[in-house]
Design brief:
Keywords: ATP-binding, Glycoprotein, Kinase, Membrane, Nucleotide-binding, Receptor, Serine/threonine-protein kinase, Signal, Transferase, Transmembrane, Transmembrane helix. The chain is built from nine helices and eight strands. The longest helix has 26 residues.
């Protein structure tokens, strides 16, 4: 009787272990199954794949942080054996089955354009993921947008230089969107950047708690002084006004109202008279 009970318990335990093993096989990898399946095809394109240990060495154990965003952090690094300097984007934890990583990897791996930074490789190692790009020595554009009253000063680039940079970025985004990359968030972000470039100030002033888009819109339609920083010529004033109008179109709340990047390029390169006044942007 006791022997039968012991055997019964053992059989039950063995069955449970077998069941758990089957469950773990179907459950555990599912998050990365699609990623790995994609990578098998992706590796045929001779893209460099690095181990996470190599990424750590490459970045000197993540010593020099260049920036941080919603998808992860970016670190300065160097390719093995004294290779080129790189920017290593460490992606945050994947949700779902890894679609976000696959989409980004698929897009950048087939994207080549003279106005886009070069994609050099990636890392997928036990759920830890990274994308590796060429290093841009001049740093982020953010350092050159805002007008600083003090400073020996004016690290802000001239408006016409910023205008040409804005067109270059628009050209690159247009190319990406023709490669199938989602446009909605890109256009909105581009519009915010364009407004900051034209106005020389952040989209939201923490000190005065002023949200720039409706503020500048109201001044624009009332034909008031736009209080633009660093504008010295009539040409710059007209260019800044065009950038503001295009930026206001790009940040419309309804994504359907936002222009395509091809339309953005046309408006920026065209005459100010051809850019209509957009609907008033919503407040925060």
């Amino acid at each position: 009787m006791v022997l039968a009970m012991v055997l019964g318990v053992l059989i039950f335990v063995v069955e449970m272990i077998a069941l758990l093993c089957r469950w773990s096989r179907t459950k555990k990898p599912k998050k990365f199954e699609q990623v790995e399946a994609f990578l098998e095809l992706h590796e045929e394109r001779a893209t460099n794949r690095y181990k996470y240990s190599e990424v750590k060495k490459m970045t000197n154990f993540f010593k020099d942080k260049l920036g941080e965003g919603g998808y992860g952090s970016v670190f300065k690094g160097q390719l093995p054996n004294g290779g080129a300097m790189v920017a290593v984007k460490i992606l945050s934890e994947t949700k779902g089955n890894g679609d976000d990583f696959i989409n980004e990897l698929a897009s950048i791996s087939k994207t080549f354009h003279r106005k886009l930074i070069t994609y050099l490789g990636y890392c997928v190692d036990r759920g830890r993921r990274a994308l590796i790009y060429e290093f841009m020595p001049n740093g982020s554009l953010e350092k050159y947008i805002y007008y600083k009253v003090s400073a020996k000063a004016q690290s802000r680039l001239g408006l016409m230089t910023l205008y040409n940079i804005a067109i270059g970025i628009a050209d690159g985004l247009q190319y990406l969107h023709e490669g199938g990359v989602s446009r909605k968030a890109d256009v909105y972000s581009y519009g915010k950047m364009l407004l900051e470039m034209a106005g020389g100030r952040k989209i939201f002033d923490v000190q005065t708690e002023t949200y720039y888009p409706p503020w500048i819109y109201d001044k624009l339609v009332a034909n008031e002084n736009l209080e633009l920083y660093g504008i010295t010529t009539p040409e710059e004033e007209l260019t800044a006004l065009k950038m503001i109008l295009v930026g206001l179109w790009c940040i419309q709340t309804d994504p359907a109202v936002r222009p395509y990047m091809s339309e953005v390029v046309q408006m920026l390169k065209g005459s100010l008279d051809t850019v209509p006044i957009p609907p008033r942007p919503s407040s925060i």
